[in-house]
Amino acid sequence: MESIKKQKNLIQMLRKDAQNLDKIALLNFCTCFAVVGFIMCFLNLAAQSWVMAGITGGIGVLMLGNKFIFRVQERVRFVIWSIAAVLGFLMLYFLVSGGENGFSIVWMFLVPPAGMYFMSLYYGGIFSLCLGTATALYMWTPLHRLGFSYSSTYLARFPIVYFAETVMCIIIQYRIWCYKHQQKELLEKAEEANQAKSDFLANMSHEIRTPMNAIMGMCELVLNENDLSEDVRDNCNNIHLSGRNLLGIINDLLDFSKIESGKMDLVCEPYQVASMLNDIINMAMARKGDKNIEIMVDCDPNVPEKLYGDEIRIRQIIVNLLTNAIKFTQKGGVLFSISARPESYGVNLILTIRDSGIGIKKKNLDKIFNSFSQVDTKKNRAIEGTGLGLAISKKLAKKMGGVLHVESEYGKGTEFTVVIPQKVESEHPIICVEKKKDLRLLCYVHFPKHAHPFVPESYYNLMRHIGENFGIPYCICQSFEDMKKELSSGKSYSHLFIAREEYLEDRMYFDQLSEQMPVTLIQDRQNHVAVPEHMRNVYKPFYVLSVGNVINGEKISFDPGKKSMERKRFTASKAEILVVDDNAMNLKVALGLLKPYHMTIMTAENGHQAVELVRSKKYHLIFMDHMMPGMDGVETLHAIRELEGEYFKEVPIVALTANAVSGAREMFLSEGFQDFVTKPIEMNAMERTLRRWLPKELIEHMDK
To answer: What DSSP assignment string belongs to 153-209?
Structure first.
């Protein structure tokens, strides 16, 4: 009984396999059969075999007709039985007539392999066996006397050889069919494993990001206090920085998972290049910290001010490369260059990061883009990192249609070049200088003070590029005496730029000089010195945007002690917000971070409480946690949307979640959330969300 059951299951599987026939293969069979039919027709015409010419030509026309029917209606079984009927008629005709001297019967040997390959194992096998049975009946009965006069050897052995070939073809195709189903099962298991990995990453993301949100949020709240001692503030800053580093590792893992699964989607929109550069430079300077190296930026002022692309991913690539360069550079510095080459589609954005670090051996250049790997680990064991930054950067550049190239000399430094195609939203340059006719620049920097030759060479080229790109006459002096000579030469310099150490050589002289002409001091944000009222002050990195702003007379200021939390650009005192989260610490963090906006904030600790609050009171915006016990965020959203009334259908609900794995944003938006904010909460993201979804009339702009 068991064997019968297995046989029935096998037949059902074979039938199912036949129903899932590869349609392309069937179309190819019709095409091949039609081509062979027409070729044989021409050969028979040449041999003046009119009957065979008519038959083979008719078969070619019929096969083309089958192909047309299949393309229009996709009637698989009709085409298969049509092919079987034509083949059966043709083979039986060859069998009886013998064709040319009995040779045409040899074509029958092509039926089993071709039939089972194109018509599936089920249909092809049945047809081949039926044709073999008909052949045996014809040759082993007196019927063979009605047709071609075959020899006794043909009559006795042809059916046996044909059946042997058919059985072999059935066995081979059956094994192929088994392997195909095994492959299908393995693919299903692989997909299940991949889904399990995604579920694990989602859970890991939530479980790690939730306490990280509390740690970093509480640090920001502490840093917002006014009466902190310097030690406490310094310790809180270190905790916050460590939290950001840990969050960076988590984000690397999640981004890599997205890219590997093919679910990393680019979000292209217009962006300001100058704003992106400012953010990148701030991140790089924060990463440098107290490290005794120079961060230099060489930017072409003719780069278009507004491009169209995925700003977040471009920024991620540059930050990864800059962070990598800073980590592996102990002496000298890092030079970040940016330019744009015009193309028919817009521009090629060219980003170069060059450092004077430890460099990479030639044999390791191809390995640095491998996932989870660092080269020369023995030498670099003290340097932290997952080994994913470069792999992610290369994959992101490729996804945007760009390239990432590396050159390095071991012991002398490394240069990464990224080229990314971008559309141009505004061709206006990122910075323009007005009234060039009256301008002449003088720079005083004593280059020998830098021990590593990489720094003075880079600074000299950087300053030279600024003058040349702006089209302004300039002079670079490396000594106090040379600078004085230039000032007394009668060339009428409009601006003087000096470095901090050079300023301290003769502070009184430069203070007096600043009352006669524009003098700008270039210094670090740490250990900066106070400057007199008439002197301008810019902070490193010294690059084209800060120079252009100075020349254009725009105000530049920086207060290292001023906290970012005090610089909110708007309040919304009449706005009423609901924050839903099952974690009491997260609710406390959210209340603290939203406090500067002066909004009325209510909280709910679970989905049922949130529904009751929304039912009894109208809110302008709702932040909803995702993973909550009982009723999760998605179920709570649906419960609110199902309440009667237009308000419940339209109130903005934003997912506030630690689940940041691939596909999370798409999932939340498809479920009906208006937006998506990840934990730990980034205040810039939170502020953008508030601006986007709060009614415009509730936003009260503050004086800057």
So the answer is: HHHHHHHHHHHHHHHHHHHHHHHHHHHHHHHHHHHHHHHHHHHHHHHHHHHHHHHHH
This prediction has a pTM of: 0.55
Q: What is d(CA 39, CA 56) in angstroms, rounded to the nearest whole number?
A: 8
The end-to-end CA distance of the chain, in Å, is 87
72-130 confidence digits (pLDDT tens): 666 667 777 777 777 787 788 888 888 767 777 888 888 888 778 777 777 788 888 88
What's the CA gap between 313 and 265, in Å, rounded?
10
Sign of CA dihedral 599, 602, 603, 609: negative
Per the DSSP assignment, residues forming a β-bridge with 603 are 579
Tell me which H or E stretch contains 72.
Answer: helix 50-73
Phi, psi angle pair for 311, to nearest 5°: -60, -40
> Element (H or E) spanning 623, and its range?
strand 621-625
Q: List the structure tokens of 677.
A: 């904010």
164 close to 135: Cβ distance less than 8 angstroms: no
- Model confidence pLDDT, tens digit, residues 7-57: 555 555 555 554 555 566 667 777 877 888 888 888 888 888 787 788 778
- The single-letter DSSP state of residue 631 is S
CA distance 179 to 608: 52
Question: For strand 576-580 and strand 621-625, is the pairing parallel, antiparallel, or unpaired?
Answer: parallel
Q: Are 202 and 659 in contact (CB under 8 A)?
A: yes
